[in-house]
Amino acid sequence: MALVLVVDDVRTLADQYAYDLRRIGGHDARVATSGQAALETLAREPVDCVILDLEMPGMDGFEVLRRMKKDGLEIPVIVYTGTGDFDRCAQAIKLGATSFIDKAESMERVAREVESAIERARLEIEVTTLRRDLGGESALVGSSAAMRELAARIARVAAIPSPVLIVGESGTGKELVAREIHRLGAGARTPFVAINSAALPENLIESELFGHEAGAFTGASRTHRGAFERASGGTLFLDEIGELPAAAQAKLLRVLEEGEVTRLGAERSTKVNARVVAATHRDLEADVEGSRFRRDLYFRLNVHMVRVPPLREHRSDVPELANALLSTTCARFGVRRKRLDRDALDALLAYDWHRNNVRELRNVIERMVLATDGATIGAGEVPVEIRSSGAPRPTANGGTFRERRAEAEREIVARALEETEWNIQRAAKNLGLADHASLLKIMRRLGLKRRAD
Ligand SMILES: Nc1ncnc2c1ncn2[C@@H]1O[C@H](COP(=O)(O)OP(=O)(O)OP(=O)(O)O)[C@@H](O)[C@H]1O
Ligand SMILES: [Mg+2]
Questions:
Q1: d(CA 186, CA 209)
Q2: For ligand 1, atom 15, which residue shows the shortest CA distance?
Q3: In angstroms, how far is the first alpha carbon of the chain from the final one?
Q4: What phi and psi, each to the nearest 5 degrees, are found at residue 325?
Q5: What is the pLDDT of residue 103?
Q6: pTM of structure
Q7: Taking a C-beta distance cutoff of 8 angstroms, is the pair 179, 138 a contact?
Q8: Which atom of ligand 1 is nearest to the CA of 178?
Q9: What phi, psi does 400 have (nearest 5°)?
Q10: What is the distance between the alpha carbons of residues 326 and 332, in angstroms, rounded to a whole number?
Q11: Ligand 1 site: residues with CB under 6 angstroms?
C-alpha cells in the first residue's frame, strides 16, 4: 500500500480524490489544500506519490515542484489541470513532474497512473544502482579537491599494467579505488578477483592464490585454479596485503617477477597476466623496518602508490556522500527515500569520522534511516556520539607533526581553491600570498594538482 498526497485548494475535490484512491487503488491518501501545507506534509510523512493541482492561489503547483526539487525530494508527481492547457503541463514536466492527467479523467485511469508513477520511480533507483554495480560509471562519490586528485591519480595508474599499492585508513574506500582501477584499466568485462589475506586461514592462502593439483595435500581432492589464474586478463585484488604470511610473500614475489604461477603440487608453471592491485591500512614501511614484510616485495608493489585520504581531509564531500549513501540505503532497505535536514547535516559535517571514515558515515546513515519514520531525518536522529564530539580533534592514530601540518595546509589551500572555483590568481590573493606563482609552488609541495578543466 502506497501513500498518496492529493494537493488541491478545493477541499471537496481533494477529498473526493483521496476517497476514490483508497477505494479503487487501495492506497492510503492524505490531502493538502495549499502548496505550503503540501510541503509540510512531504517533510513529515513518507509520501510515495503526489497528485498536484497546478492552479492554486498563493504557492501554485509550479512553485511546489521547484521547492521539491530544491529540497531533493525525489517523489513522483502527477500534475493535473482542469484547463486542458497542455503547454502548462509540459512546463510542469520540465520542472520534474512525472506525468499529467486531466481533471475529467476517470478515477480508474488516475489510479493506474499512480501505480505506474510509483513503479517507475522504484525502477529508476534500481537501474541507477545496477548501472553502478555493473561498472557503468565511477562509484566513487565526491568532488572535493582531494577526491578529484584521487580520481586523476587512479586514471594515471589504471593505464599502466604494473602492480599498484593502495594505502589508506580503514573505511576510506580502498576497495572502491581498486575496483575503479580495474574498471578503467583491464575493463569491467574482465574478471576482478579479490583475496583478503586477513580473512583466510594461513594454510589456505597459498592454495587460494596459486591453486593446487589434486592430491597436493590431504583434502585436495580436485585440481583448483588459484586466484592468479582466475583473474587472468583482469585484476587480482590482494586486500590486507600486510597480513600475508612470510611464505606466501616469497611466492607472491616470484610470481610477480616471473609472470607465472606453479600450483601447489604441480610440476609445471602456468603463465599469468593478471594485474595485481594490493591494499593495506597498515604502515607497510614500518612493517618492512620491523621485518614483518619483505622489503623486496614492498618495492615491487609500491612503484605505483595510491593514497586514499581519510574523510576528515575532504569533509566538504560529506553532503554528497551522505546523499548517495541515503539513496542506496533506502533502496536496499526497501523504504522510501529520506533526506537530511540542515541541522542533521551540520552535525555530520562537524564530526571528524576518525574511527572508520566513509564506512562509519555509511553505518550512521543506516542507523538513522532505521530510526526515522518520516521522510526527513533531523538532528535528533543523529547518534549522540556523533553529535557530542563535533569539534575537530587530533587524528586518532596521530600522525607526525609534519604530516598533520601538511594536512592542515592542504585543507586551507583546497578550501581557498574551491571558493574561487580554482582560480589560482584569486585564491592566492585571498590567502594573502605575494602572487599566483607562490601558490603554485605550495600546491606542488602539497601534491595538489591544478584542475585539468
Ligand atoms: N568515495 C566514496 N564514495 C562512495 N562510497 C564510498 C566512498 N569511499 C568509501 N565508500 C563506501 O564506504 C565503505 C567502505 O569502503 P571500502 O570497503 O572500499 O573501504 P576500505 O578502505 O577497503 O576499508 P578497510 O580498510 O576497512 O577494508 C563501502 O561501503 C564503500 O562503498
Ligand atoms: Mg577494504
A1: 19
A2: 173
A3: 48
A4: -65, -35
A5: 81
A6: 0.65
A7: no
A8: 18
A9: -75, 170
A10: 10
A11: 140-142, 168, 170-176, 281, 321, 324, 358-359, 362
